[in-house]
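User: Structure with flavin-adenine dinucleotide, tokens only please.
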Amino acid sequence: MAVDNQQHVTVVGAGPVGCVLATLLARRGFDVRAFEKRPDMRRADLAGGRSINLVLTDRGLHALGRIGLRQKVLELTVPVLGRMMHSPDGDLTFQPYGKDDSECNYSVSRDRLNQFLLDAAEDAGVELNFEHELVDADLEAGQLIFETSPAGRTSVSSPVTFGCDGAPSAVRRALVQRPEFEESVDFMNWGYKELVFPAADDGGYAMERTALHIWPRGAHFLMGLANLDGSFTGTLYLPRTGPDSFDELDDPRRLLQFFQTNYADATELLGDFVDEFLSHPTGSLGTVRCAPWHLDDRVLLVGDAAHGIVPFFGQGLNSGFEDCAVLDDLLADDTDLARVFETFFERRKANTDAIADMALENAVEMGEKVADPDFLLKKEVESIIEQQLGKLYRSRYATVMYSRIPYRVAYEAGKKQEAILSELTADLERAEDVDLEQARRLIERELTPLYEKYGVDLEF
Ligand SMILES: Cc1cc2nc3c(=O)[nH]c(=O)nc-3n(C[C@H](O)[C@H](O)[C@H](O)COP(=O)(O)OP(=O)(O)OC[C@H]3O[C@@H](n4cnc5c(N)ncnc54)[C@H](O)[C@@H]3O)c2cc1C
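Assistant:
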């Protein structure tokens, strides 16, 4: 189907990715309707409540820049310059993220971001329909069935459907019924629960505002990210079953004891968290992989619906926003939707598979390695190499977070970097004694050809 710019298109799911995609499509002249199962979160009676946040980085911000929102969204964020590690004894160690403070992550409230993006979509002319849950679809015939609130059903004709309905996607469920479609959903044994560190008595921040606070404890860990109002959102990642698991910590006494033993300094700051904690459901963590993401020119999955990942690299939403920017580029150059959808899938799949794997690897890094002396020595050496040989070497972390170099290149390079750092630190006691000439030789032999193969410029 060739693009007819008055064409009706449907976006299912008005989460962050659905809103950004709908806005981009409307700006390209499509007639866009979005259907969202939840009520309008901007309504006064629904706004407020617990603040749950996430980090935005360059890939996400770039897509927001496409719709002129980068700066306005940045105003809703708190910059995060590095990790503050809390040892079991309460000692603090800070590890900066980037080569300088310009390389940082931005913490933003999910709800505030989504509300802001709903406004942007509406301003761009998108028709928003709330309390419409997709429950069935005949994708061949272009018919979508929604349950509406109060109890009702409506059938909507949709020649082109974008599935932006998150990891449990109903659009994907409809695609899966086709024989050529493959899908896997792998859940970790870890779950997560969010909790709030209230603002200090004077309304300020009770911990360093511009750090991601992390309490690495091996089999589980706690982290905290600042909100604009002085509070922090904490997230506890813990096994679902077994010793020290969500299953076991099911009564107030055991839970408090667990926190006092493992997270003593955090427990002091959390106030009365126990009842609220126990009454909230435990979140699941999983990786969604599927192929293809499209049905000729009629359906395309975007964001978590196509590639839900675990949160340990902070890239789920960033990769979904990057999807939107890539699709927008393709639509600028080609009017054939079937070809655009196919190219989009081919271009994105290897990259989203790579970030899915890196996010799983980072679970180990955040739980255990950030407190491991060998790992810390490698990180210090890496930081020296970046400062001294920055044109030749950027860390995997920086490449993922502060550049738009394809994830698959960051992943492949990361494996070579790990081998280089192991060789450089094999007999090293102090990072400052690293042999920079040996480092240069190894980098030029192992890494530079990879970057040349992909035409990648490390000066970002
Ligand atoms: C604990 C945790 C921390 C995270 N931290 C980060 C981070 O720091 N940085 C980052 O980039 N990512 C992070 N993520 C990932 C991020 O939350 C997701 O990648 C992102 O929300 C995906 O956006 P989306 O719009 O594709 O899907 P969603 O945010 O899931 O939105 C989907 C929308 O579709 C609606 N919907 C669902 N089903 C239907 C239906 N049947 N009919 C109609 N509407 C429907 C939903 O109500 C929702 O509004 C984190 C995830 C978790 C769990």
